[in-house]
Structures are given as C-alpha cells and as structure tokens.
Amino acid sequence: MVSIFSLVHTIGGIPVDPRSFTFQSRRSTMSIDEQIGCFAPNEKSLKYIIRIHSDHRDWILYSLCYDKNLNIPAQSSHILSSVQERTISTPYSSEKFSNNLLTTPYEFYQCRYQLENFKSTLGFNQARKFINCNNGHFFAPGNLVPVSDFPFEQQRTATQYFINTFPQWKIIRDGNMKNLERSIRKYVKDSGNPLTVFGGTLGVTSLPSSAGREELLFMTRNTTNNPTVAAPKLVWKVIYDSHVFESIVFVIVNNPYRTNVVELFKNREVVCNCVCHETEGWFDGWDRLDFTKGYVYCCTWEEFHQTVGIDYLANTKLLRKKS
C-alpha cells in the first residue's frame, strides 16, 4: 500500500505550517475537498482534505484517506501543536458520507439497533451476550482525528464528520483510547514540541457466533446488500517529533472480548514486537494491558511500516516519554 501522506508536515500532499493551528476567528467557514484515489493500486478510496477559511486565508486542518468499500477512514494526518482539554457538543455531520446504505449512522450507532443487527450475524444468544447497552459494550463513533487535538471551536467542529469516524466499542473509546490521546497531548504540553500524527485502521474485528465461527462485524449493508461500515480490528497512531527525529507507533485492539495475547496472535491482531517496555512513561496512571478498556501495544516505525505496508517517514529512533 502506498500512502498519500509522503512528506512530514504534509497533509494530502500539501505542506502544512504547524503555526497555522493557533488562529481563532469568529468569521470562519469550513470545506471538504474530495479527490478520487489515495491508495495505489486500490481505486476504491477517496482523499478528503478538511480546510478552514478565515481572514482571507486557507488553513488545512487534517487529511483523510477514506475506504469506500468498508466505509471508514483508513488513514489520517494532522499536526498536534496546542493543547486545551475541552468537550464538544456539536453533532456529527453526514456530509460526504455514503448515501447508498440501508441505514444511516444516526441509526446504526444506536445500541438497540446493534442488538438486532448482530442477531443475524452472531445468533440471538451471542448478540445478547456481547451487546450490552448499560456498560459500554456497543459501538459508538470513534474519531480517527481526535476532537481534543485542536484548541479552538471551529477546528473541533471540523472533526465532527462521520467520514472521520469508525465503529469503536464505546468502552474502549472512553477507556484506553482516551487515555492514550491524553498522554500524547501531555507530551506536547510538557515538551513544547508539536507532533505530526498519522492515524489509521486495519482489518475488520470479529466475534464468535453461536455456531462457533468468528464472524466479521459490520454495522449495516449497502443498497446491493453487501455488508459495510466495518468495525476495524486495529486502530493505530504514528507519533513523530521532528525536533528530535523520533517516532513511536501505538496500536489499539478494538475488541473488549479478547482476554490474552494468545487470542491476539490467533486472530492476527499483533503486527509487531511490542516495545512498550522501553518507554513506559506514556502509560503513567493507566493500564494499557486492560483488554476490556482496549489493549495497547507499541511498535517501532521501522517494523510497523514494513509489516503493514505504509510509508510516511524515514527510519527513526524510538520516541521515549519519561515518567
């Protein structure tokens, strides 16, 4: 797979100035540029460049490569340079999201819908076993480009598109995914160094059916009755600090029902030799080994890009974080 993000501090092939993310203006508008194809030779993809227009200037906020078959973002790129932990109540926009689905994201992200949907895939008893609306064991929209990675309201609102989301178990989204994103932002705050952040999804997660088979999980079907909007198997983040020429890759297993590393290998959810033990400071105050909240492991960039087949950076040293 060839990446569309070939240059550091480049989004969608367009150079980005990290200082551009410090603006704030009440007179701003947003737009999404769409281009066909961002993987070679896979033509079933779209490149989206999310821009903010303000004060007669044009800021590129982030870029996405969108998988049209799975109907989730496959890759993303943005720069994290300023930290302000805030919440946002802006609803998601369906702009650019596929209109050939049998149900909308407003429907398939409802827990009760998922319970009915997975009965046909997993069987009645298995669906009731795995989907629990009371404890976060259902799918919610997870942002590939996090809303809290931007300090200003206009920027945060620009992350609230369904094309920037993928089905993520809510207990993982609100658990170790949030813990990891906070740890990354804390690095920026403590070091003062902006980070280039590449994100992505890999594969399709699965659960055992009543017949004992691992079944892939999709949220809905398209108008030709093919399953789509895949719940990814893995979510990954490549963090690069250009000031020290170091990077680290974090991989989050998107399945709260895995219970040990043997199961991860069995289901091909391990893509590298874990190097987290070399840089434990990223995990101060939380447990990356908690499968229910999202098991997290670390890769070197060199091994990850060779295994997965993406190419953003030259080989770099491991980015370590002190406790």
UniProtKB/TrEMBL annotation:
InterPro entries referenced in this protein's UniProt entry, alphabetically: DNA/RNA_non-sp_Endonuclease_sf (IPR044929), Endo_G_ENPP1-like_dom (IPR001604), His-Me_finger_sf (IPR044925), Non-specific_endonuclease (IPR040255)
One Pfam family named in its UniProt record: Endonuclease_NS
Keyword Phosphoprotein: no
Gene3D superfamilies registered for this protein in UniProt: Extracellular Endonuclease, subunit A
Superkingdom of origin organism: Eukaryota
GO biological process: apoptotic DNA fragmentation
Span of domain DNA/RNA non-specific endonuclease/pyrophosphatase/phosphodiesterase: 58-304
Gene Ontology MF: a single term: nucleic acid binding
Keyword Nuclease: yes
Sorted UniProt keywords: Endonuclease, Hydrolase, Nuclease
Single GO cellular component term: nucleus
Family named by the database record: Belongs to the DNA/RNA non-specific endonuclease family.
Name of this chain's protein: DNA/RNA non-specific endonuclease/pyrophosphatase/phosphodiesterase domain-containing protein
Protein source organism: Diploptera punctata (Pacific beetle cockroach)
